Each structure stands twice: as C-alpha cells, then as structure tokens.
Amino acid sequence: QAPQPTRGGTLNFAVVSDPPNYDCHGHETYVVVQSVGPFYSTLLKFDMSRYPEVKGDLAKSWSVSADGLTYTFELNPGVTFHDGSPLTSADIKATYERLRAPPAGVVSLRQATFADIASIETPSPTQIVFKLSAANPAMLQNFASPYNCVYSAAKLAQDPRFPVQNILGSGAFRFVEHVRGSHLVGQRYDKYFVDGRPYLDGFRIAFIPQATAMLNAMQGGQIQAEFRTVGPADRARLEQALGNKIKFSEATWSTGLIVAFNTEKPPFNDVRVRRALSMAIDRNAGSVGLRRTSILRAVGGLVRPGAPFSASAEELASLPGFGRDIAASRAEARKLLAEAGVSNLTFALVNRAVPQPYTPAGIFLVDQWRQIGVTVEHRQLETSPYVQAVRAGNFDVALDFQNQVLEDPTYTLLRYISADKSPENPSKGIDRQLDQTFERITRETNVQARTQLIRAFEKRVMEQAYQVPFLWWNRLVAMDTRVMGWNMSPSHVHGQDLVDVWLAPATN
Amino acid sequence: MALAETAAPETGGVTAVAHGKGDEVLLSVRDLHVHFHTSRGIVRAVEGVSYEVRPGEVLAIVGESGCGKSVSSLAVMGLLAKPAGRVEKGEIIFDGRDLLKLSGEDMRAIRGRDIAMIFQEPMTSLNPVLTIGLQVMEPLLIHLAMTEAQARARAVELLTLVGITDPDRRLDQYPHQMSGGMRQRIMIAIGLACNPKLIIADEPTTALDVTIQAQILELMKDLSRRLGIAMVIITHNLGIVARYADRVAVMYAARIVETGSADDIFLKPRHPYAVGLMRSVPRLDRPRGARLQTIEGMPPDLRNPPVGCRFAPRCPLKIAVCEAQAPDLLGVGPAHFARCHRSADLAAGLAVFAEEGTAPSAAIDYTGAPILAVEGLKTHFWVSRKTSWFSSELATVKAVDDVSFAIRKGETLGLVGESGCGKTTVGRTVLRLENPTEGAIRFEGQDLAHLSQKELRPVRRRMQVVFQDPFSSLNPRMTVGDIIAEPMLVHGIAATKAEARARVDDYLTRVGLFPYMAERYPHEMSGGQRQRIGIARALAFEPQLIVCDEPVSALDVSIQGQVINLLEDLKRQFDLTFLFIAHDLAVVRHISDRIIVMYLGRIMEVADRDALYAEPLHPYTRALLDAAPVPDPVKERGRKPRALAGEIPSPLNPPKGCVFHTRCPLADDHCRTVVPAARELAGHVVACHKA
Amino acid sequence: MGAYLAKRILTMIPTLLGVAVLIFLMLRVVPGDIVELKMRGDGGAPTVEQVQAERVRLGLDKPLYQQFAGWMVGLVTLDLGKSMWTEQPVTQEIAGRLGLTLQVAIMATIIAILIALPLGTLSALYKDSWIDQAIRIVTIGGLAIPSFWLGMMIIVGLLFAFNWIPPMQYVPIWQDPLANLSQLIWPALAVGYRFSAVLARMVRSSIVEVMREDYIRTARAKGVYERLVVGRHALRNAMLPAVTVIGLEFAFLIGGLVVTEQVFNLNGLGRLFVQAVTRSDFTMVQGIVMVIAVVFIVTNLIVDLAYAWLDPRIRYGGK
Amino acid sequence: MTLAIPQVPVRRLNGLLAFAKAQPVGAACLGFISALILASVFADWIVPNDPFTLDFGALLMPPSWQYPFGTDNMGRCVFSRVVYGARTALVIGILSSLVGSVVGGLVGVVQGYFGGRFDFYVSRFIDVLLSFPIIVLAVVVVAMLGKRVVGGVDLNLVVAIAIPIVPKVARVVRSAALSIREMPYIDAARAAGFTHQRIVLKHMVPNVFAPFIIMFTAFVAQAILLEASLSFLGLGVTEPTPAWGLMLAGNAADFYREAPWMIIFPGLAISLSVFAFNLFGDALRDHLDPRFKL
Ligand SMILES: Nc1ncnc2c1ncn2[C@@H]1O[C@H](COP(=O)(O)OP(=O)(O)OP(=O)(O)O)[C@@H](O)[C@H]1O
Ligand SMILES: Nc1ncnc2c1ncn2[C@@H]1O[C@H](COP(=O)(O)OP(=O)(O)OP(=O)(O)O)[C@@H](O)[C@H]1O
Ligand SMILES: [Mg+2]
Ligand SMILES: [Mg+2]
C-alpha cells in the first residue's frame, strides 16, 4: 500500500548552476524552472501521473469553445502572493500580456507560442478568458508550461522587469536566500492555496557545475536528489556505494541530438552526401553501446519514441539511416558518396564542449563516418561559440540538440521547416514541401489525419536529411530512497514545483 | 680621521716588545697537504707547505693567483670549502695544539678568539642585513660572554681604534652605508675584537685604492705592533711585502719555493721564481728600462703538475735535473730556505738572468698635429639615487668634467687615478661608446662628438680598444679565429675568409700565440693569452690609435710584464698611438711618454713621465706616489708613512672648489671655493692653486 | 614612506590601464555572444529582433570605443559594471567569491611556508646528501603532479575510505571554523603542495647561494655557532628571494585556482572566471581580471615593503 | 628570477657524455624524455590497439595482455591512448614552449640590447602580461582564438600556451641580455662598428642561449602541465584526440571504483613526464650555469 506522506524536512538537491536571473518568461533553461519554479504558480500544469495530460494549478477548471478559439478559466479562490496580496485574474492577464507582447527591456521567449492569442479578458477576478485568432491543438499544453510563472500585476505595472531580480510568487514555497554560485533556499509558504501542501518545510538547492562533484555530493550524503539526470555509469557507482539508500527513475527524454548539415556549404548542398552521412550512422548499435556510457539511448524519429505521434519501430526501420542492416546501409552510403564525387570526404564536426552526452556522441559519430572512409575533425566548442557557430552557419556538420519542453508536434517539428520560416533550423535548408505539410499539422485537430501528416513530414526530413535525429536521450534520476511523491517525466522541467514531494522519515 | 696622526711614528720600542717573547712559535704549519675533490679531478691546492709565525711577527705569503695562498690559510682556520676540500696530511700547531685534531666546536672557539681573519673583499665580507654593531659585537658576546652593554662599549672602543669617527652612530648603521675603506676598517675591528694572537689577512687591500690601501696597511701594521699580534698577510703585491713584512714565504704552484726574512728575499733571492718576480714588475724607484723582464709561460695545472721542479717549464736557469727531480726546501742562509737545484749557483753568481736591453724609445715629434685632441670634454650620467626610506632623486654623476688633452702620433699617453675618477669614461667617450655631454673629440681632425653611429663606422676602424678584463672582453661563443677575423671581414680589410684566416694566423703569431689556437674558444685560454687575443683583435683593424683600459690590471705580475712588453713591441712594429689607462703608477710610468693624473672627473696634472715622477707638482700626484709601496724593504723602511687621509668623496656629491680639497694637506679657503684652472708650470700642466 | 606609497600607487595606474585595454580588446575577439547563449543555450528560439533588442539593452551594439569609455568611467569610479549574465553588479558577484579564494590562497601559502622553509633549509644545508636528494624528489614531484589530479585523488581517496566529501557550502571561518576548515583544507593542501615545492626550491637555492657568500665565511671566521651562522646570517639574506616567490605565487593563486576550484566544487573566483569566459560574460571577465591584477600589484607592493623591512640596503637607500 | 652573467663554455661533441657524467639523474631523465619522444614518434608501432576504436563490448576492462592499462568508458585502450597522449603532450608542449621561448627570447634580447625607452615600454607591457596568472591568460586566449587544427595540432592552443611563456622568458632573457650588454665584448663589437643586427644576432643571442635553453626545458614541463589543465577544463585538446588531461576530464573520476586505471595512468603519465622535464631542466642548469635561478 502507498505510504502516507509525512510533513516536514528539507529537501537538498543539486542544480547545475545558478539561474542567470529569476525571470521565467525570458528563459529556456531548466535551471530556472527547477530553482525558481517552486516559488510560482502557473495557470495549468502537467499531470505527472498522466503525462502529457494537464491539470489545473491556479485554474480550478476550464473550458474550450467548440471552435477552439475561446479558452475560459475559473481560478481557485483565496490565492495570495507571498507578500500577502491576493492573486486575481488581473495578475494572470498581466502575466500573459507580458508573455505574448513583452514591453521594451523584457525578454519573453514564448512570444511566438502565444502568437495565436488575440485578446485576454477578465470578466471577474476569478475568471479569465483567452480569445485565439486560430484554432491551435497545442494551446492547452502551452498554458501548462512551467515557464509561464504568474507575476503580480501590481509589481509589473511598477516595473515590467521586476521579476528579473525579485521573486514574488504564489507557489508552495517562499524565497529565503540565494548565494550566487553556492545555494538557494526556499521555505514552505504557509498560506499556500492548496490545503495540506506542501509537505516539505523547505528546500535547499546546491549549485554544482560538475557532474562528478554532484555525484560525489550525493555519495557523501550532502544532497538527496538531482532532477536532471545521471549517467549510466554513475548509477553503478552510486548503487555500489550507497546500496539501497538510493533509487532511480528512468524515462526516454524529450531531448535529442540532431546531426545538422550546412546546406549552404558544398558538398552538403548535395542530398546524396547528406543522406550518405546519415545512413552511415548505425543508430541501433550506437543506442546499444552508448547507453552504457552516455545518457543517449532511444532510437527515434522526429517525435520522441513513446510520445503521441511517434513512429513505430517498423515505420522507423524503413527510414534511411534507421535500417537494421548496417552493412548494406554503409555500402549504400559509400555508393552515394562516390556518386557525389566525394569519396574521400573530410570535414569538421562542430560539437558542444559538454561531456554528456555530446562528447561520446561526437566520438561515436567520428568513428562511424571513419568506417565509410570519411575523415572528420571533431571540433568541440564552448557553449557560447557553439551556439554562435551553429546559428550563424559557421560549420560543415554540427551536432545540434533539441529540447522539447512541450511535445506537441507544432513545437517539435518547427525546427525542420525552411530556414527562412524557422529560426531554429541550423541547416539553412529551404523546403516548401515541408513547410506546407507543417502548416497543415499545426491546424489539424483530427489525430488520425495529423499522424499521417507527421509520418509524411518525417519521411521527407529523413530523405532530404537537412538535419536528422541521431539518438534520443535517456533520463535517469537518482535520489535518496526517502524522497517521495516525485514523479518521473520525459522533461526535466515538468513536475518540479515540489508541491507533492515529501521526505520519508529515516529508517534505522 | 687622519690616520697618519694616530699611527705611532717611532716604531722601535713597540717592535721590541713584540719580539720580546723570544723564539717560541705561535703557529707552526707542517707539511700541509690540501686537496679538492672535484668532478673534474683532484686539485692538489697545497702540497707540503710548512711555515712558522712567531708572536708579533708579520709573515707575508706571496705568489701568483691560484698558487694556494688562500687555501693554506683557510686550512689553518678550518674553513675549507666542504666537502670538496680536505686536509690530506700535515699538522697545524697553534699555541701548542694541533688544530687539525680539534673537534669542530673547539676549533670554533679558537676562531675569532685566538685567530682572526680578514678577507679581500670588504664589499661582500660583511653581512648586508645586520648592523655593524651586531657584527662587531658578535665575537665579544660569543667568546668573551660579555653583556650587551659591555660589548657595545668595547665595540665603540674598537671602532675608535681602527680610526672610525662617530663610532656610536656607526654601530647602528649597515655595511652598505659605508665606503670600502671603512668596511675594511670594520673587518679589522672585528678581527681585533677578542685580542687574538694571530690575524690572517688575505689580500686585505687588493680591492682598495692606493691611498686607502696605504691607510689600511699602516693601521694594521701599527696595531699589530702595538698589540703584539702576529700577522700573516697574503698578497701578490711585492711593494706591500717590502713595506710591512718581517718574513716572507714565496709560493709557487702549491708549494713554498722560498722563505726567509724580507731582506733576504728581496736582496738575496735564491729561487729563480722569486728572482723573476722581483724583476718583472715595473718599479717606481728605479730608472725606467725599455723592456720588462718576464717569466714566460704559465703556472702548471694543479690537477696534473709536472714531476720535477714545478717552475722548471718556465725557468730560464733550468738544467736537466730540474725536470726529473723535484727539489727540496733547503737552507740557503740563516732562516732562509729555497726549493731550487740551483740556489747555490744563484748565490755564487753562476746562474744569471739575461739582462734585456734598455734602448730608449724613439723621440716623439711634439710639434705635429695631434692625432687625437680632446677639448673641454664632459660626460655626465644621470642616475637615480636612493636617498632614504623609499625615496629617490635624480642625480648627476660628473664622471668626466671638463677634460682636455691631446695625443700625438706615436705617443703613449698614460691616464692614472684612483677608482671612479673617470678614466674609463674618458676612454669610452673617446671611442664614442658613451655620448659626451659637452666638448669636442677631434680624431685626425674630425670631431667625433656628434657623429651618428653610422657615420662613426669608418672611424672605428682607425681607433680601437683593449679592455681590462680578459675574461669578459671576448665573446665566449666564438672561436679565437672568428673573433679576430670578424672585423676584417666586416670592414673589408680581408676580402675572403681564406685571406682573413691567413691574417689571423699572422696576428696570432705576432701577439705571441700559435696559429693552431684559432680553433679554440676563449675559455680554453689563460688570462694572459686572452689579453693577447684582445690585442690581436684590436690590431686586426689596422688602427692608428688604441685605447687600452687597464689592459694588465687583472693579470698576475709575471703575465703583466709579458703583456706590457708585447704592447711596446707592437707599438713600434705597427707605429701605434696609445691612450693607456691604469691605476698602477709604476705600470703607467713604464709605458707612457706623458701622463695625466685624474681625480674625481678632473685632470689634476699632466706632465712628461719622468718629470711627473721626479717632481710632482700637484699634492694629489705626490700623495699617489707616496702611497705606492716599492718592492724594496730597505727603501721602504726609510720612507715615512705618509698615507693620504680621508676617503674619496662620492662622485654624486663632489666637493665644491678644488675637488681634492677635502683630502689635500695644503687646502685653504680659496681651494674650497674656487675651481683651480689648469696652468702650465715647469713643463707640467697643473690644476692647483698651491703649485 | 607616505610619499613612496603614493608614488607606487600612481605607477600602478599605467599597468592597470594596460591590463584594462588588453583584456578589453582580447575579449572582443572572442567568438560567440552572451545574448545568443542566454536565449538559445538551452534550446530557446528567440526571434532575430528579440536578440537584437537584448543586445541593445546590454549595450553590445555600441561601437567599441564607447563601450570601452563607459567601462573606463566605471573603473575610475570603482564601478565594474554589471554582469551581462546575471545583471548583478560585478563587484558584488566578485565579493561573494573572493573570500573563499583568498582563504584558500592564504591557507596554501601558510602550508607552503610551513613545509618549504624547513625542507628547503634542510636540503640546502645537506646539499648533495641523500636528504637533499629525497627532498628534491619530493619538491619536483610537487611541480610535476598536476594539482587537479592531486585534488581528484584526494577526493576519491576520501570517498573511497569514508564515503565522505568535504562540505560544499562555504561558511566564513569566523562563523563556523570547523565546517570552514573541513571544506577548504583539502584544496589548500592540493595547491599548497605545488606552492611549497616552488618555495622549497627557491629557499634551497638561495640558502646554498648565501652560504657561499663571503660574509658567511666571515661569520665562521669569527667563531659564530653554526646554528647562528644559519639562523642569523644566512636565513635572513636567503629570505629575500623567498619573499618574492611567496608574493608572486600568492598573487597567482587568486586567479590561478581555476582548476582546483573545479575539482573541489568551490564557489570561488576561479570558477566564476571560467564560467564567465565560457559564457562570454565580458563585463564579468574584465572585472575579475582587474581584481586579479590589483591583487597582483598590491601583493608586489607588499613584497617590496617586506623587502625593505628585511633589507636595510633598501630601507636606508644606497650610498 | 635572477640571473648571473652566464659564462658558459661551449661544450661540443663530448658534451652529452660530460653531462651524463656530471648529472647522472639528469641523464636518466633525458633518457626518459628520449623514450617518450620515441614512443610518440613510433606510437603506431608500439600500441596494441587503435586508440580511436570504440569497443562497446569491452567497456571498462581491467588491465590485461590485450589492454595493458585497461579500457575506458568508451571501450578504448587506455594504454594506446596514453602512448598517443605522449605525442599530443610533447608536440604541444615542445611547440608552445619553443614558440614562447623564441619570441620571448628575441624580445628580451632586443630589449636588453637597445634599452632606453623601447625597453621601458616593452617592459611595461610585459608587466601587464605578467600580472595575469598563466592559466587565466591561457583561458582567455583559448576563448579568444577558438580552435585551428593543422595536421592534428591545434595551433591556437599552442599559441594560447605560448603567450604566457613569452613575458616570462622575455624578462629573464632581458636581464641576461642587460648584463651581457655590459660585457666588454659587446663594447668591443660596438667599437668595431658592427651593425645592431650583427651585434644582437652574433654576439648577444648565442650568449643568452644558456638561460634560454634552461628556460625552454622548464617551460616544456609547464606547457605540458598547462595543456593538461586546459584539456581538463575542456578548453584544450578535443576528443577523440588522445591527450592526458582530456583523459582525466569529464566524468573520468566517476569510475574511480570500477576503473581506477582510467585516472591513474594518465595522471602518472603527466606527472612522470613533467617530473622528467623538470629534473632534466634542473640538471641542465646545474651543468650549464649553476648560478641561474628560475
Ligand atoms: N673550493 C674549491 N674547489 C676546487 N678547487 C679549489 C677550491 N678552492 C680553491 N681551489 C683551487 O685551489 C688552488 C689554490 O687556490 P687559492 O685560492 O689558495 O689560490 P690563491 O693563491 O689564494 O690565489 P688568488 O691570488 O687568486 O687568491 C687553485 O688552483 C684553486 O683553483
Ligand atoms: N653608465 C654609467 N652610469 C652612471 N654612472 C657611471 C656610469 N659609468 C660610470 N659611472 C660613474 O662615473 C664615475 C667614473 O667611472 P669610471 O668607470 O670612468 O672610473 P674609473 O676611473 O675607470 O674607475 P676604475 O678604476 O674603478 O675603473 C664613477 O663614479 C662611476 O660610478
Ligand atoms: Mg686567494
Ligand atoms: Mg675603469
């Protein structure tokens, strides 16, 4: 039987580094969600036990009009910010206005995703209505994004940048202290609007940039959890050292590596070369091998394996580069290269200088291409120049990554359309056929039809190979066996509000 | 602080006391052997040395550099460099105890208490970070168990004794705040602190100027007589030996070759080396001969000395037996011993040294245009001077201040003066290695003072230089041949390498070396040989004028004679003109036609060589001549100690008026305010109000 | 003395200015841009306009000379600007880390002095004996073993033996000395070993050299006890070059703990520096470099003062 | 760093023998260094396995005949990677030390020779460079230059390691050059009317060679260490190039229980080779110029 939650205790966990600032809206990094998220509420949130379904957070209930153009939310009553001021629909309106049309000096990285919102109305303090300009099957997920922290309208009116350096939320925890580079402390908010929550007295985050140091800290008992991931080898290490004091949760991650070809640079403007290089990668063997030393694991298409709309194993196997006969695949690849006249191809693979999983992936890819006679220089760059190089097209081939916080194809497939329509597309490829298909995918509300469109889109992407998925990551969370009430999800930004987490009393 | 006054003029009574202890021996060194075990072999630095010192007696040990003088006395002190240096054999009996058998602690108790030692380098022998007071008081506290107050009182007494004024203040000062002469006085004070029975002074004045040297030596002599302290003075200056020593031991290649009373050694030398030594130095007290007599060759390598008499390879009197069998130290007179197979022959006059001719040099035509005329030359340096606590100021060193002279073709112009008086700077400015601040340098009619380095290039061929230090004046990375050939090739004197090669051989031969030496590197040559290479390099330019900056000062006396002779020969052969810089009056007198005496950047007196020595007009010239000891004990005994008092003032802060007035016995108020102009007087040019 | 200090401080200005210009120019060559990194580093997809707006806000669009002038004005008023990453004042960010780094540097210096003085003296006095050889190997080992590897070994050793690692959170020593020391003693040991090696070698060679000096011979000739010869006559002279080394090494530790801080997970200046560089946080890098340069120069000044205190030749000026 | 005027005699042919006799430990180190050089030159023939081949069937294998130092977490042979790592370390170490020493040496000699205002301004610039800790300077330069790999060597990394060396060498060589400049043989050369160029190149440069060569060996050691540190920080050599520092980077230490050989052998390789270079440099200094202090 499920153990009864107990109250009390402080959860110590690690996050890789400080949030640069506290503004959820301006970030796309889990660091902000994991460290600042517990101080805030959002309109909706993902239901961790039934992911990817959503549930209410501030919203008690909601309804969507039949045409999919009107979203009406009923708010929980009696919600207060940590300074005691009440939270009303005005605050939510202010928050969403800031998200979809940030004032000068404010960054909202979610501007595009809320572009479909035409207007926001607040009929009453507990009711808020969003009117859309077009139906959007991804909109509910969008409202559940943990980055949509709800800010105080009053504060925003005084200073739109107020949340950048200050934390005033309505979440389960109150901000106590943040020592840069060292730690951040939160304490239970006694007037949190959900009765009996949170269980924890508070939490304390240690910022530990190095994975090894984090593991050491876990082994030394200084932290009880780290919610991003540990590597497969670390699991063995921790199990050896800590035995049954440690437990693990595992899931395919909504994050993956993508091999991108710079289609503006010959010979990568030649589809044969791109496809050959994609086909030379033995993803299946890589998955089996790399899972033992890196956080790479699942072979998948454009959609995370296991997620709605993902390709089945059979469907995958028919795509170029995913076939089960690697020898044949490589032979084909050599042939394609020969046809393209670049049998002795040499190029540089731009990769991110981050140990997991970029480095092993890079090493593996270099080795794979070596096997079809291609010489690759592995060029690992620090994140900043890496991002710069990839975005500016300063590369031959790049190992890019995708991080799908919201897994609806509307968001996840965006990067594959023509470069002039998608700022995320590093390959510079232009493919109107893909654009058209994508447009239909974003508006198609019929699941069946949508799935078919996605399959077609996927096939085209794999064949043209402007950018092709390599492997999906595997999320492996290690935590003290005492940490309870936390649920695994495919994304490390979901379910991190710590509302339901509790610490079992120490046995012995 | 006039030393001349403090020294007791009549010495007779004191000496009598000193010798009154009779024949008991204070220190007896017997058959001492010291070896150094180095990675390149065993250096037998001292072999079978024996000598005795009686209370109150002054023993001088003389000999060439490296012959083992210092090592033998360090062995007495138990201060040989460990672990390389070892006493292999012998006894050192001091006051009835064999020092070699004492424990380290017992030996320490003797050092500084019974035997004190004074070293050569006053600048480095005192600890720079400890006060003078501490350093003087240290032996008192350690050996005599005095209290601080007692020790300080005694230290004041000691400083007064060695002629330091204001001793109480000096005790709290640091060594760098004193001049070299004062530091040496302090070293003496330290030596005297515990009333030792014996003081060993290892070249105590070599690093000092003649006038200061005279002060220090007078002081030491006086103190040893008054306090009855025996002294061992190590030196290579025969004049000092003659003036101060009772007895003399002459060392050659790790052995004592002759020992006896000072009179015996100087008047009746019985070893050819001792004979040669006396004859190879230019002397102020004798008429000047054209050539010096020299001891040819070089001392042997102590790692591998010759089997027979060690001096045989250089000895003009050697006979067959000399090379086969090493002679013993045998008596040749009362308390007079020599280590020579031919000492009897020498005594009997059967073995004689060939006398060199004394042909006078060709008369110089003084009427022609001078080859070099220096007019009103000033060379000033700007230096930053630390004044006190972290502050400094920019000061001017007037290294050369209004100097004028001329050299005629074929003439040798000597330039003497004590250290720091600006001799080198004159030479360097003439060569345009320094830029003159003011004045003209007319070389063959052309004023060099304002030429650019590029314009100077053709001039440089005709004006060359020989430096003082033979060890640093040759590029250690070039072979001898390359060193001499390089200027010929660069200046187009030799068109091809082969031609240069041939000329190199020629020059090497002319400077007394061998053509095969062209392949060698400088470090494979001795000091004298290196100096010859330096001369050959200068000759290779076929110059008109050569500036010789103390070309023999760094050389041993025997080698010095060789180089001086060589310079004279070459001058005649190549029709050269020399500007010859030196601080040794005898050397300058020997080689020069005319002499300039400088003091603190100014010319004091210019005169013909003989006139200058015969009747010096400037009081400074007179003082210099007085201070220089001559190697003749009889003459020295007749001379009164007339050391010039005081120190050389700092060039940063030269005295007003006549720069010499602070030390001049004749100075009056006029001298203190008005700079004397140079004027002609009896064939001299003198800058003195009193002359 | 006051005048001297004033003059010394004045002469620092050109050096600091040089450092400022150099680091400023060097950073502008660094490829990549903090704005891109901030917005895209974790997969964000901002529009071009957004990126540009953020650049404008951070002043990155201004011409170089304007940026430089702005920064210089800040420097003069002791305002190092704001970090482009956190938008917190750089001084505040640095202040938060300096304590830790300073303490590790000081502890390493103390450890080094405690180890190096006896070892260096011993090996000088027993030059070429087996003691000397053994010490020499130990000290060269200190130069050879990378301190990050040593640090790794220390941590791994602690984990292996006790399943324990030093506490991660820095508490100032006056608040909780035990926690503080148990955190910082390890990195101090890891870098202190190298430091002590450098120092011991310097102490050895300068004692060997001093023992050859004439005044040591003079002291012995006076019959001074050997322990006084070493303690009074030799050590003080030999300390002079050692003081320089101590100063230099200490100053270098302020910025040079980069790797060690990484290994020991210390929230110090070095880690901040590497993070700032990898993030292209120019103002932060500039600020840290200026602080390091100031520490370096001030340490040099202190070394000079120590020199003067130890060496009367400097204290009382030359003749 | 102080320096006495090196009066170093040139020892030619039998120099090596004399060195071996006078400095047996130094000679042993020279032997080790030679072995290291040979190993890196002939790495292809020495190693039992290809250092790049991933073998997922042989992850974290303990040392065995096939894998003398075991395998790493990618199934690569640690021994082969250590041997190839020697190549990386030596090439980068020697190259950057050479570049740094030559540039610094030339700057120092020219500074020492001309003195005056030129010397003053260059010295101030050198002061500026010297007030950066080495690693700080290297980190910034690495970030600044990025990577430029030519023939398997990251030239920019070489530059980044060389730059901190330049001012150090320049300073020491300058002081040597200053004292050499005062030597009479330089005066003789000036009095001979030689050109500046000739005096600098023929008379000064060969005479600062002793401090130069001593510094060069010492800086090879430093450069190897610095390269390892940078690689450890992830700023140096990149995977899959075998390099010692890189082998310790990332999560290598996590395997301390399962595969301690992953961190022991590369660490030893760094330590031993730096040790050898340092000891050799020491011996060389004792041999060439006992008064020289670094
Ligand atoms: N520490 C040492 N190691 C090796 N050889 C030494 C050492 N000290 C002296 N020697 C050698 O011993 C010999 C005698 O040296 P010593 O110092 O006694 O000569 P000296 O007569 O005092 O000469 P100088 O007039 O130059 O002072 C020399 O050949 C010298 O090279
Ligand atoms: N380059 C220089 N900078 C500053 N002062 C200098 C310089 N060269 C010489 N002097 C000073 O000028 C004065 C004269 O020096 P110079 O070398 O000409 O004397 P000298 O007569 O040759 O002495 P010595 O007999 O010691 O060789 C000295 O006080 C010296 O300190
Ligand atoms: Mg001597
Ligand atoms: Mg001179």
Automatic annotation (TrEMBL), chain B:
UniProtKB keywords? ATP-binding, Nucleotide-binding, Transport
Q: Where in the cell does this protein reside?
A: Cell inner membrane
**Its GO biological process terms?**
peptide transport; transmembrane transport
- Top-level taxonomic group: Bacteria
Which parts of the sequence belong to the ABC transporter domain?
29-278, 383-625
**Does the keyword Lipid biosynthesis belong to this entry?**
no
Q: InterPro entries in the record, alphabetically?
A: AAA+_ATPase, ABC_transp_ATP-bind, ABC_transporter-like_ATP-bd, ABC_transporter-like_CS, Oligopep_ABC_C, P-loop_NTPase
The UniProt similarity line reads: Belongs to the ABC transporter superfamily.
Q: What is this protein called?
A: ABC transporter ATP-binding protein
Give the originating organism: Phreatobacter stygius
UniProtKB/TrEMBL annotation, chain C:
User: What name goes with this protein?
Assistant: ABC transporter permease
Primary localisation category: membrane
Topology of the protein relative to the lipid bilayer:
Multi-pass membrane protein
List the CDD domains hit by this protein, alphabetically. Answer: TM_PBP2 (cd06261)
Q: Name one GO molecular function term.
A: dipeptide transmembrane transporter activity
Which family, according to UniProt?
A: Belongs to the binding-protein-dependent transport system permease family.
Which terms are listed as keywords in the entry? Cell membrane, Membrane, Transmembrane, Transmembrane helix, Transport
Q: Where in the cell is it found?
A: Cell membrane
Highest rank taxon of the organism: Bacteria
Q: Which InterPro entries match?
A: BPD_transp_1_N, MetI-like, MetI-like_sf
In this protein, which residues make up the domain named ABC transmembrane type-1?
98-307
Q: Where are the transmembrane segments?
A: 12-30, 105-126, 138-164, 184-203, 242-264, 284-310
GO CC field:
plasma membrane
Automatic annotation (TrEMBL), chain D:
Question: Cross-referenced InterPro entries, in alphabetical order?
Answer: BP-dependent_transpt_permease, MetI-like, MetI-like_sf
Stretches assigned to the ABC transmembrane type-1 domain: 86-281
Query: Which stretches are annotated as coiled coil?
Result: none
**Which superkingdom is the protein from?**
Bacteria
Q: How the protein sits in the membrane?
A: Multi-pass membrane protein
> What is a biological process (GO) this protein takes part in?
transmembrane transport
Q: Where in the cell is it found?
A: Cell membrane
Stored Pfam families: BPD_transp_1 (PF00528)
Alphabetic keyword roster: Cell membrane, Membrane, Peptide transport, Protein transport, Transmembrane, Transmembrane helix, Transport
What are the record's GO terms for cellular component?
A: plasma membrane
The regions listed as transmembrane in this protein's record are 25-47, 89-113, 125-145, 208-226, 261-281
Q: Which family does it belong to?
A: Belongs to the binding-protein-dependent transport system permease family.
For this protein, the record's PANTHER family field holds: D,D-DIPEPTIDE TRANSPORT SYSTEM PERMEASE PROTEIN DDPC-RELATED, OLIGOPEPTIDE TRANSPORT SYSTEM PERMEASE PROTEIN APPC
Specify the protein name.
Answer: ABC transporter permease
Which source organism?
Phreatobacter stygius
